[in-house]
Specification:
CATH topology of the largest domain: Immunoglobulin-like
Oligomer: single chain
Number of domains: 2
Largest sheet: 7 strands, mixed
Number of strands: 22
Structural class: alpha+beta
Strand content: 35-45%
Number of helices: 4
Length: about 375
């Protein structure tokens, strides 16, 4: 559905009759060439020559769809009676037209000359004339979008300098339908944003753990592809990530294990229409104790004609890696280590006890010698 909003402009002198009287051919100026060589005179380009023309904006289809080209036509009618509330723009002998859209909302291709003049206009048979501009527009974004056509009449002041007298129509508001491929990409991306990856809660250094993720496709496997990435998030302990699916690894660019503290290992998974899921598995090996922080990114892609549609979402999961457990020989050596400490302590105590006993013995011996001398 197309909603057109009008801009009321003040009416000026009837340019089509007072300034450009028709000639034998029925077109404005046919009976009176406007200057040497047929070019417009200063009178025809003066601000007084401006007149208000009713306009209409139409499309060659009832509804606009994302990624599907449509023709937009801007028609200004010169000489038709103007009533209050009619949408109008100011026109002169020659006029430029510009089409503006929001960034990224449309792809625009001009299909008519940007400059239209009264002497080349189309007679309608009722004494009025049409100036028509057209563009091929392809909506790139779904939902409510707007387009604005600006008419720039050629006007010169008394010294021959051009004066900017542009007038713009109110934005043409259109409702663009979502392309089926865009809808499929959006639905799968929304699902991927809420998928929980399968990650062990506890890990040990130097041990391998399987990490996996599955993204439901909801019947869109024939229209889209999903690329799944696994990387270590900032702050993660160093890990090694190995891709389990050799075919996926080859599609993603080959490679064996990638060791990093912050890095990644990519697996591209082409959406499987039969199983209706996109899945990937990795082997994660902690290299040091600490938090293991993993980030999963799902990039969903589709082709809508000649246009590529892509959306990426990221989810995170975490685990904690502890140090490697003691080996058999380490456990066997622990009692010996404890016994060694005990023996050492006992030897020290015995040595101290022997020293104290020797001191006491010497003291007793010395006391006995003193009594004998007396």
């Amino acid at each position: 559905m197309v909603a057109l909003l009008g801009l009321l402009a003040p009416a000026a002198a009837p340019l089509y009759a007072a300034v450009y009287p028709p000639g034998d051919g029925g077109k404005p100026g046919d009976g009176r060439p406007p200057g040497e060589g047929g070019g417009p005179t200063d009178e025809l380009l003066s601000p007084d020559s401006l007149t208000a023309a009713k306009y209409a904006v139409t499309f060659d289809r009832d509804e606009l769809a994302q990624f599907e080209e449509a023709e937009l036509r801007f028609t200004a009618v010169v000489g038709e009676a103007i009533e209050r509330g009619d949408a109008t723009v100011l026109v002169s002998w020659t006029n430029e037209a510009e089409l503006e859209t929001a960034p990224g909302a449309f792809e625009v291709r001009r299909t008519s000359s940007s400059r239209q003049s009264i002497d080349a206009s189309t007679a309608r048979g009722d004494g009025t004339y049409e100036l028509v501009w057209s563009w091929a527009v392809t909506p790139l974004m779904a939902g409510e979008q707007s387009l604005t056509v600006t008419i720039v009449p050629t006007v010169r002041d008394g010294e021959g300098r051009e004066v900017d007298m542009r007038t713009a129509n109110e934005p043409v508001v259109v409702d663009v339908e979502v392309h089926p491929v865009q809808r499929a990409v959006d639905e799968v991306a929304a699902e991927a944003a809420h998928v929980a990856a399968v990650v062990p809660e506890h890990m040990q250094v130097d041990r391998d753990y399987e990490v996996s993720v599955e993204v439901p496709l909801h019947g869109h496997g024939d229209d889209i592809a999903v690329e799944l990435d696994l990387v270590a998030a900032p702050g993660s302990a160093a890990v090694t990530i190995r891709r389990q699916n050799a075919a996926s690894a080859a599609q993603a660019g080959g490679g064996g294990p990638v060791a990093f503290a912050m890095g990644g290992a990519r697996t591209m998974t082409v959406a499987d229409a039969m199983s209706d899921v996109a899945r990937a598995r990795w082997t994660v090996t902690p290299e040091e104790a600490g938090p293991v922080l993993l980030a999963f990114t799902a990039t969903v892609r589709g082709e809508a004609g000649t246009y590529s549609v892509e959306t990426g979402v990221e989810t995170q999961a975490s685990a904690r890696a502890s140090g490697a457990p003691a080996s058999f020989w380490d456990r066997l050596k622990e009692p010996v280590d404890y016994l060694g400490v005990f023996v050492g302590f006992a030897v020290a105590v015995l040595g101290l006890w022997g020293a104290v006993a020797k001191i006491r013995s010497n003291r007793r011996k010395g006391g006995g010698d003193g009594e004998a001398a007396a």
